[in-house]
Design a protein that fits this description.
Layout: H1 3-17, H2 20-35, E1 42-54, H3 66-77, E2 80-81, H4 97-104, E3 111-119, E4 125-133, E5 137-142, H5 146-163, H6 170-173, E6 177-189, H7 200-211, E7 243-251, E8 258-266, E9 277-282, H8 286-305
Antiparallel strand pairs: 1-5, 1-6, 2-3, 3-4, 4-5, 6-9, 7-8, 8-9
Length: 306
């Protein structure tokens, strides 16, 4: 690191120290949410993500010092700068991370950091999968609850301002937020086999027509010359639901803004096929995601009881 970069980083650290009590207070306020008891059917929080889109005029990434921002993020979260893989110009070995970062931070593409740690205690942490920053967005993906990602967003926003040479608190920065997006992926136990998400009529068809009756399933496999390219007389099968995607088409009647979101439910391992253990992804905040799954489990249980 050059003497100039060290000086800029030292100045940015001093700026953040001036508002460190604000960051500590955010952490204390979020602690109850981090410590809350989660339902037993929630087997794993695979990841949560939040993306904040801000008015570019209130977010000075393009005039921030890449070296200072990188140092602050590494010190706080132990993340590593990720070189772009799709841009051949940045794959040359004679180009340093500093050169690449200086170019990216002023581009629309922005910069990305990966594989960090959000320390819950001195010995326990949640994995930070990525922190993506461009001229108008901060996008954080963590292997933990939503509140962790939101704490990181606030810290990153203050770091960007510090790296630009100014002290700005999150409470002031958030006034420039224009959009917030969420994503949550969890491994859950539905309580019944995944196949019960299908209507009774479809379940009946799968069993009594695909496997039994006309045995359409057996017609789908490859045929061997040993049986003159006919279906093997010893062939058998079972069926299991693998994935369901529900697309949600949203339209604001006043502004005309539209978007498509999705709810995806799927089996992730062969061992989970035919069970109620599935991965559920939604574009819901973490707490609403859990509410949605609880409602789904209740609906399935009610259908079975009727």
């Amino acid at each position: 690191m050059t003497e100039k970069n060290e000086s800029v980083t030292a100045e940015a650290r001093q700026i953040l120290e001036g508002i460190s009590t604000i960051a500590a207070e955010r952490r204390r306020e979020a602690q109850p949410a981090l410590d809350r008891v989660l339902p037993k059917w929630l087997l794993e929080v695979i990841q949560t993500e939040v993306v904040y889109t801000m008015n570019p005029r209130t977010f000075p990434l393009r005039v921030a010092a890449f070296s200072a921002l990188t140092d602050l993020l590494k010190e706080k979260y132990s993340v590593s700068f990720a070189r772009p893989t799709k841009n051949a110009a940045f794959s040359r070995t004679d180009i340093t991370d500093q050169d690449i970062g200086n170019a990216l931070i002023r581009s629309d593409e922005g910069i990305r950091f990966e594989n960090g740690r959000f320390m819950r205690t001195a010995t326990d942490f949640d994995v930070i999968r990525s922190i993506n920053i461009n001229y108008e967005t901060i996008h954080v993906i963590v292997q933990g609850v939503r509140e962790i990602a939101e704490l990181i967003v606030a810290d990153v926003a203050e770091m960007v301002w510090a790296a630009a040479g100014a002290q700005k608190r999150w409470n002031d920065i958030r006034n420039g937020i224009q959009l917030i997006g969420y994503g949550t992926a969890t491994q859950v136990d539905l309580g019944v086999p995944f196949e019960h998400c299908l209507s009774p009529a479809v379940q009946w068809f799968c069993q009594n027509q695909l496997l039994d009756g006309e045995k359409y399933a057996l017609e789908t496999g490859r045929r061997s010359v040993r049986h003159q390219f006919a279906v093997s007389p010893t062939l058998n099968g079972i069926w299991a639901l693998d994935e369901v995607t529900i697309n949600l088409f949203l339209f604001d009647q006043r502004t005309g803004r539209s978007e498509t979101t999705r709810l995806n439910i799927g089996v992730t391992t062969r061992d989970s096929a035919g069970t109620g253990i599935v991965r559920i992804y939604s574009e819901l905040p973490f707490n609403k995601h859990l509410e949605c799954i609880a409602a789904l489990r209740e609906a399935i249980a009610h259908e079975r009881a009727v």
